[in-house]
Each structure stands twice: as structure tokens, then as C-alpha cells.
Amino acid sequence: MSRLGQGLSRIGTELEARRAEAERDEAAGPPYGPPETAPPAGAEAAEGPTTVPAPPAYAPDVPARPDPVSAIPWGMRVAAEAGWRLLVLAGTVWVLMRVISSVELVVLAFVAALLVTALLQPTVAWLRAKGVPRGLATALTAISGFVVMGLVGWFVVWQVMDNIDNLTDRVRDGIEELKRWLLDSPFHVTERQINDIAKNLSDTIGSNAEQITSAGLQGVTVIVETMTGILLAMFSTLFLLHDGRKVWEWTLKLVPAQARPGVAGAGPRAWRTLTAYVRGTVLVALIDAVFIGLGLYFLDVPMAVPLAVFIFLFAFIPLVGAVISGALACLVALVTNGVFTALMVLVVVLAVQQIEGHVLQPFILGRAVRVHPLAVVLAVAAGGLTAGIGGAVVAVPLVAVTNTVVGYLKAYSQEPALLSTPEPRGATAYQVAPTPAPGSPEGKDRA
To answer: Which stretches of sequence are listed as region Disordered (predicted)?
Structure first.
């Protein structure tokens, strides 16, 4: 009995120790993670265990993968953003150029009408200020302008046809004189070499007779297209002179509402630049034609008046036109009057062009249409490659107008005070400029 009592006492002592140990473990919590909560009935079977064992202490840390955008360098991201925008812009320009090339005749006729309108619009405004009705003022100005242009063209053709026989004889004599000069020159040119060159030239013309005939037929097509373009330009000029305000208002409706104020303010300035360019170029070209024509007349060069008219017309192609017209005048003087006269003509042409470039253009055109010479050369080259002579003529005024518009829009986005526009004076676009004049109540409210 004593042994049985001792065994029961030992078992009780062990049970008490185990109960105390269990209470200590329950008070300390589980070894990993927060204490578990009793899951609802059946949840453990459906969802699995509620805790995940922590990794062992010796396991290495695995860093998280970075965002792909942050992994690309900043410069590359900027280049990519600019690149796809440039691609979209280049595609838009390419499509626009394709559309323009398909209707090149219409575009050139309308641009020519804009240039003529910029030249004649001040006359319409002057007649309107004198009380002449708009329709009558437009008709008088347009008819007078077209008659003057037609008379100039007729005068050139008449002078050429009237002097063609004399010019042919002078050219023949000039070729003989040039031949004698080459024989006596230090270049050691023989008569046989000159005859061989003349024979090769004659054979070349004879072998290319078919191409020359085809070029003549193409010339007829060009004449028809030119007449069509002239008629389109005349009608466009007439309607722009009469309804220029309505045309500008309709154009503004095509512009998005958010950009409309800026475009409405840039339009008058662009028109002022175009008007200043056309009027200044006409005046400079007239001065060049008069003085070079007088030099040709006093040097007894045949067809001095037609050459002066050609100099006037080619002056509308900056830089390149002056070189071509001056070279033509020197060539005519060379084959008709000899080397000395050609050198004197070259001196006259260079002197007048130097006065034009350093005195006339800065004084007459001023700062409104000042374009860097590099931009002028590139614009004339691009315009000539794109649309021939017409593209070369309209390239520089287009660059000047674009420069004015971009400068204004840049200032408009930076300085709201530049919204004010001077009172319109004789320009079609100025009559509908919605921007108020400086100092007006509207301008103060808008500012």
C-alpha cells in the first residue's frame, strides 16, 4: 500500500509539472508569428494552414526586381519620346507634301494670288478711305493691276520679237569674234578644235531631235497649265481683295477654340510681314531693273529694256535670281559687244547688287522680314526642288511669315500682355483681329 501511495504521488507531481509547463508555453505564445486564433469550424480543411513558417536564418535575401521603366536611362527615355513624336511629325509633313504636289497648280495659283493681294490691298484700303464703295474699289484696283502686268508682259514680248533679227546678227558676229579671240589667246586653241566642238554640238542637236520635239510638246502643256494658273490667280486675287475679311473669319472657325486667340493674333502680324515683303521686294526689284537697264543702255547692249524687265522679275527669287539675271545680261553683252563690254556690265551688276544688299533691303524691308542668308538659300533651294521657279519665288515669303507667326505664338504663350494688337490699317487680316488695342477697356479686362 505504501508503494502504491508513493507511485500515485509521483504521477501527480509529474502531471502538475506538465500542466505548469503548458501554461508557461501558452503565456509565451507560438515560436513564429502572432498567436493563432481559433479558425471557424471546417476552415482549416478548406483553406489549409493559416501560418507560413519563416525561412531559416541562413537563407540569403532575394532583392525585388526593379520597374522596367526605371531600368531605362533617362536620356534614352527622352530620346525615345522625342523620336516617336518626330516620326509622327515627319509623316504628317510627308503626307501634306504629297497632297500639295498633287494639286501643285492650285496651290501655286493661290499663293501667287496672296502675293498680288498683299501688293494691291493698300490701294483698296486707300480708295475705301476716300469713300469709294468696296466693290468699285476692288474692281478698279484689280483691273488696274492686271492691265499693268499684262502691258509689262506684252512689252517684253514685243521688244524681244522686234530685236530678234538684230540680236541674231549680233550673236553671230559675237561668236566669230569669240572664235578669233580663242585662236589668239594663250590657251593654244586651234581652229580644228573649235570646228570639232561646233560639229559635235550640231550632231548632238540632230541626234536629240526627237527629245527636242517632245520637249516642245511638253512646252505647249506647260503654256496651257501656266494660263490656267494665271486665271486661277486672277479670280483668287479678285475675291481676296473683296471678301478677304470673310475668308479670314471662315479660316478662324477651322482652328480649335483653345488655339483660336493665338492664331487670331498671329494672323494680322503674318499679313503685315507678307505685305511689307511684297511691297519692299517690288520697290527693290524696280530700282535694280532701272539702274542695271540704264547701264546696259549706255553700254549699247542689245535688248536693254527686255533684260531690265527680266532683272525685275528674277529679283523676286532672292540671291539666286540676281545671279541668273546678271549672268544673262553679261552673256548677251559678251556675244554681242565683246569681252570689254561684258566686263563693264559685270561691274554695273555687282555695284547695283551691293547697294541693294547693304542699303536698299535693310532700309526698305527693315526688321519685319529679316531672314538669315542661310535660311534664304536653303528655302530657295527647297522651294525650287519642290515646285520649280514658283516654289523658289514663294519660299522666302513663306519662311518670313512662318518666322513671324512662330515668334508671336512663343511670346503669346509666355506673356499674356502681348495679346494686344495695333489698330488695323489697310490689311485684310487686321480688320478681323479679335485682340483689343493697347489701353482699351477690353484689353485691360482681358489682361
So the answer is: 1-60, 422-447
Q: Which stretches of 76-169 are assigned E, i.e. beta strand?
A: none
How far from 433 is each of 42, 427, 447, CA to CA, in Å? 81, 10, 17
Q: Which residue has the cell 488696274?
A: 144
Which amino acid is residue 394, in one-letter code? V
Query: How far apart, in whole angstroms, are the C-alpha atoms of residue 128 and residue 61?
Result: 87
3-state secondary structure of 240: helix
d(CA 264, CA 419): 10
**Can you tell me the mean pLDDT for 401-429?**
64
Give the Cβ contact number of residue 255 at 10 Å: 14
User: Domain residue spans in the chain?
Assistant: 100-194+212-430
Q: Identify residue 429 by its one-letter amino acid code.
A: A
Q: Which three three-digit cell numbers place residue 20? A: 505548469
The number of beta carbons lying within 10 Å of the beta carbon of residue 233 is 21
* The predicted structure's pLDDT at residue 30: 52
- The 10s digit of each residue's pLDDT in 268-284 is 888 888 888 888 888 88
Q: How far apart are CA 396 and CA 379, in angstroms?
A: 6
Per-residue buried b or exposed e for 77-99, using 16+ beta carbons within 10 Å of the residue's own CB: eeeeeeeeeeeeeeeeeeeeeee
List pLDDT tens digits, range 55-70. Answer: 667 666 666 777 777 7
